[in-house]
Amino acid sequence: LTVDGCNAPQFNVTLSGIADLSGNLASYTVQGNNSGFTSEDINGGLLIPSQITALSSNGFTVSAAGTDIFGTQDSFNFIFEWVTNDFDVRLQFVGSSPLRSASQRGGLMVRQDDTQGSPNVFVGTYAPGSGNPFWVVTERPTENATTPIDSRPTLEPNFAFPNAWVRLKRAGQQFSAYESLDGFSWVQLGTNITDLALPDGVMLGIASTPISTTPAQFQYANFGPTIPIPQLQIHAAGGNVLLSWPTNATGFSLQRAPALPVGAWAAVTNAPVQAGGINQVTLPLAASAAFYRLIH
């Protein structure tokens, strides 16, 4: 087994000297794309190493240990990328098990460096079954300072995993944290954080801690730039009506109703055509009124 290209955009895994029961030899090479992310256990080397235990098209599961993201010294798993200047990212925290502690939690973090006392901002929530029904925002404003809780509001009455979304935004030296139940409608947690002086280049990613030296599984999805609620555009074109919305607004479908208020919306079954970053549906112009919406 050989691996090359780990620090390149693409990598190759080659298996050689493989023999079947008849002694026939074969070799195989598989190519993949590097994600650009690094997984690091920020803990002084005292924990069981973390590992990615499952992958999906839009997420992953990490087995991680760590004794807290709090106090003056952190101990957790961090899957991150280096970014510069402003950012606005979101993350879906799908769930975590088994429960190692009532404070077991996961979410987004921006961090100056990988020392245990690094200045940082964290936004997340607690694992299912923890008995801690809260969103939480913490920050360490300076190196090795005590980490206070900036905001810890109660979860919405209709909150349920896997619909736990968090968002972290930077504008200069101002940081803001948000929560959502759908990844599109956001509620700010607390006020803007302005007492950090982080460099332009920072570590940005996903932080997981079971508050235990024994690992737990953390499931995440949809990490990436925050996507605004899409606007549905409608235009008449001859005997047709054209409906369009951005392709980066994934997970939305088009519905139609004959009147408002609506008794029931019906799905528009015409498949969208994608071009130039736009989904477009063409329908014949109806003789009576019709109303359209996007639903997630």
Largest sheet: 7 strands, antiparallel
Radius of gyration based on Cα positions:
23 Å
Continuous helix count: 0
| Element-by-element helix/strand order | EEEEEEEEEEEEEEEEEEEEEEEE
Helix content: under 10%
Shape: globular
Mean pLDDT: 91
Q: Give the total of beta strands.
A: 24
End-to-end Cα distance = 44 Å
Structural class: mainly beta
Sheet-strand content, in percent, reads over 45%
Unreliable runs, pLDDT <50, ≥5 residues?
none
Strand arrangement, major sheet? 4-7-16-9-10-11-12
What is the gist of this entry?
The protein is an all-beta fold and 296 residues long. It has strands spanning 2-4, 10-19, 25-33, 38-42, 51-55, 59-66, 76-84, 87-97, 105-111, 120-126, 135-140, 149-151, 165-171, 174-180, 187-188, 201-209, 212-225, 233-237, 240-246, 253-257, 266-267, 273-275, 278-284, 291-295. The chain has a 7-stranded antiparallel sheet with strand order 4-7-16-9-10-11-12, with no helix packed on it. The chain has a 7-stranded antiparallel sheet with strand order 5-6-17-8-13-14-15, with no helix packed on it. A 4-stranded antiparallel sheet has the order 18-19-23-22, with no helix packed on it.
